[in-house]
Structure formats: C-alpha cells, structure tokens
Design goal:
Blueprint (H helix, E strand, L loop, with lengths): L1 H20 L4 H10 L4 H22 L12 H21 L2 H25 L11 H17 L4 H11 L4 H26 L4 H21 L5 H23 L1
C-alpha cells in the first residue's frame, strides 16, 4: 500500500502541474486511482474531491475578470452551475459501479475529443452564431450536469459556450474557471456526505495536486504548452484504448 500511495502522490503532482500548465490533470489521476485499487466510479469521485481545492484556488485567482452573459448575470450562472453539478453528482451516485465502468471509455473518449478540439482546432475567439441568455443558461446547466457526473473537458465546453454567448476570451476563461469550481463544489459536498470516500487517497491526491500546481505555475513560462496539450491527448487516447480493452 505505501508504494501505491507514493505512486499516487507522484501522479497527482504531475496532474496538478498539468492542470496549471495546460489542463487535463484528471486524465492522470483517474487511471492512477484505479491502479491503486479503486473501481472506476470510486476513482472518478475521489479524483473530483481531491482536485477540488486546487481548482477553487485557480478560480479565485481570476475572480476579478468574471462576467455574466448579457441579461444572464454571473450570479445566475453560479446558481445554474450549482444546480447542474448537484444533479450530475446524484446521477453518478445512482449509477451502478459496473455500468459506470462500461460507460467510462466513452466518457474518456468524449473528453479527449473535446480537449483535442479546444487545444488544436478551435481558434481563439471563434464563434458560430450567438447564444441568447436563455440558451446560454440551458447550455451551462447541461455542462454542469456533465461536470458533476464526470467532468473531463468541461473547461473547453464552457469556454466555447461563453465565447459564443458574447464574452471575450479573457473574461470567458476567468468565468469558466470560477464556474468549474462552483459546479464541482456542489458535487463535492454531496460526495463528502453520501459517498464512501477513501480519505487517505483523497489526502494524497490533494497534497500532490497542490504541490504540482505550485510547480506548474513556476513552469508556466518555461514549457511549450502545445507539447503538453498533445501529451494529454495521447494519454487520453491510450486510456480510452486501455479502458475499452478492459471492458471486453
């Protein structure tokens, strides 16, 4: 067990640095937690809870740039995200572990595709049409449900939705960081009181992610971001293939 916890800490440190540099840290923590002995659903829940402190810190750092979408205020987006995150968390807890294990390869494939699109194919500020406040709220609610249930790729999904709704890239980036922490806050609250969490693993991953976040912030201007994003896509593809093979 100590050896697995050490490996888990190193993986979480890597994930924290990855999140600070380019995103996609959950692609590292999820398989590491499964390797440590957790089933797919428990690993997903543990990863969400453990990465939450670092995610919240990221959101708070850029809080001065957050914005609503036209007539849809930022407070309304927060309320929508809290509600959606809670719905997603309840749906995850209601999902049998065996069914989630079968669903996981498809979720990882979707998240990897979204990450690859946002990293390499979507141009900054690119918009196709314009979302009105009602549509933006509906899209955010759907993203929040997905975020509470699994969460891979939510950053790029929100960035796309918020820029299409009319926000500038910087405001959209800060807003999606804060909303990501908000939707996970409701999910984490539900998980803490209803799920059987393995707290030693939560503590190890949280500590590693915090250390990695500090290291990643220092490395931010010293590492090629495209290489990092490409690496995340490769990890996601490898994880997808491995999970599909495991499900056969």
């Amino acid at each position: 067990m100590p050896v697995k916890l050490i490996i888990l800490f190193l993986a979480a440190t890597w994930a924290g640095a990855q999140n600070a540099l380019a995103g996609g840290g959950s692609f590292i923590t999820l398989p590491a937690l499964m390797f440590s002995g957790l089933d797919a659903r428990a690993a997903n829940i543990t990863s969400t809870v453990a990465l939450f402190p670092g995610q919240t810190t990221t959101g708070l750092v850029g809080r001065k740039l957050v914005s609503g979408v036209g007539a849809l205020s930022f407070r309304a987006l927060v309320a929508i995200s809290l509600a959606g995150g809670a719905v997603g968390a309840v749906l995850l807890l209601a999902t049998p572990a065996s069914f989630f294990a079968m669903l996981l390869p498809w979720l990882v494939l979707f998240a990897t595709s979204v990450f690859a699109w946002g990293s390499f194919f979507r141009k900054p500020g690119e918009t196709h049409g314009h979302l009105n406040p009602l549509a933006a709220g509906g899209v955010q609610f759907a993203i929040a449900i997905y975020g509470g249930y699994f969460g891979g790729g939510i950053g790029f999904l929100m960035l796309a939705a918020l820029t299409i709704a009319g926000l500038g890239v910087r405001a959209a980036g800060a807003t999606k960081n804060m909303l990501a922490s908000v939707m996970n806050a409701s999910a984490v609250l539900i998980f803490v009181f209803t799920a059987k969490l393995d707290w030693p693993r939560v503590a190890v991953v949280a500590a590693g992610a915090i250390v990695g976040g500090v290291v990643g912030s220092w490395m931010l201007r010293r590492v090629n971001e495209k290489i990092l994003r490409g690496f995340v896509v490769l990890v996601g593809l490898a994880l997808t293939v491995g999970l599909f093979l495991r499900a056969v």
